[in-house]
Structures are given as C-alpha cells and as structure tokens.
Design a protein that fits this description.
Mean pLDDT: 82
Number of helices: 10
Number of strands: 5
Strand content: 5-15%
Length: about 230
C-alpha cells in the first residue's frame, strides 16, 4: 500500500528536500503540497491524503489551527494523520498542535531514516515520536496547564481498570510498549492490547493524546511522576 503524503511548509526549499527523500521510497508518494494552512485545507477538499507533514509557523493560517480544522473531532477513520515538523526542539507550538489532534512531532533536521520511520508509524497508528521526546516536550509545557491537585480531575479515567491505569501512567512517563512489558512482567502484545483499550475507553485518537490527557488531568506531573494519592 502506498502512503499518500502531503507537505505543508512555507519554505519551498524544505518541501523540495522532503519530497526528494520520500520519492525514493517505494511505499510513499507525495500527492500534494501547500505553503500555508489555508492552501492545505483547500487542497484536502480534492485530494486524498494519508499523512500530512505540517510546519507550525506559517502565514495566513498556522499549523496548529490547520491541524485543529483537519482533525476536527479527531475521530474520523479516514482523516489524515498529522505529523508536526518544527525547527526548534520544544517549540511552544508543538504542544498546542498535539492538543489540536496531531499524532506527534519531529524536528525538521531529523535524519531521513527517522522521518520515514515516523511517517510509517503515523500511517499505521502506532507511536509517532520517541517516548523521551514526548516526555521532554510535556515536561517543558506542563506549567501552562491548569493547576491540578492530588486527585486526577478527569472523570473518564474512572472507566479504566487498575491495570489500564497503571499502563497509562507508564505510557505518560515516556516508556515504550517493550519497556512497559518488562516493568509489569507482561508480553508486549498484552501491553499493546491494554493501550488500545485505553484509547477506546477515553475516546482518544492515539497514544500521544493519551499522554496529553494524563498530564492535563494531573495523573502525571512534570518530571514524569505519578500524582500523589
């Protein structure tokens, strides 16, 4: 299956570079390009896209608002997955984009192999960014979230079993499925099943949004620790 990719960046030279990398892959095709969010929304009305590489700082309509409009309520099975590309590590826009529905973020100077792996991961619905990167991003911007106290404030967390809550805590602390499996003495397949049930019960699009919810709710605090009981 060919992954249909759209490039959204106001720098034509960067789009050219990404297009050359993707064109060399037998399972990928760049089917559209846009120089800002407004153009991207217009193109998407007529073009089927699987994964969007989205810049954040663009004229007319930035990548955060474009992502919000593309993802909408974030539940459409055929909606494009958005992978945010940012120039600066821990860009303040990246966190907003994750909340808006993006499936992850990477730096623009990412090695080609890592970019290709990320695109394939996004397309398959797996984890999109390195857990350590997600953790650093959220630790940096947790102070921007509403203050939370000892008990998590999101009632939907009550839908989780004790084991699922335990898995969510470890996901939010930046552990991969393999690391969670080792920590809890479970098979990796079992952990993946738990993560899938967590996403379903909490009505979340992907693993990244589960991390965001865990931080927003106070289930996990900056620094990766669980909330005090």
């Amino acid at each position: 299956m060919t992954i249909r990719v759209m490039l959204v960046d106001d720098q034509a030279l960067l789009r050219t570079g990404f297009r050359m990398v993707l064109a060399a892959q037998p399972d990928m095709e760049v089917v559209a390009e846009a120089g800002n969010g407004v153009e991207a929304l217009e193109v998407l009305r007529a073009t089927k896209v699987d994964v969007i590489l989205m810049d954040v700082r663009m004229p007319h309509l930035d990548g955060v608002e474009a992502t919000r409009r593309i993802c909408g309520d974030g539940r459409a099975a055929d909606a494009p997955k958005v992978l945010i590309l940012t120039t600066f590590d821990l860009d303040e826009y990246a966190f907003s984009a994750l909340k808006a529905g993006a499936s992850g973020f990477m730096l623009k100077d990412v090695p080609p192999d890592e970019l290709l792996t990320a695109i394939r991961a996004v397309h398959s619905g797996d984890a999109v960014v390195a857990p350590s990167t997600t953790r650093r991003l959220l630790d940096r911007f947790t102070p921007m979230l509403p203050a939370t106290h000892a008990e998590p404030t999101r009632p939907e967390l009550g839908r989780l079993t004790e084991r699922e809550r335990e898995v969510l805590l470890l996901v939010a602390q930046g552990l991969s499925n393999g690391e969670i499996a080792a920590r809890l003495v479970l098979s990796e397949a079992t952990v993946k099943t738990h993560v899938g049930r967590i996403l379903t019960k909490l009505n979340l699009r992907d693993r990244v949004q589960a991390v965001v919810l865990a931080y927003e709710s106070g289930l996990v605090r900056a620094g990766g620790g669980g909330a005090a009981g």
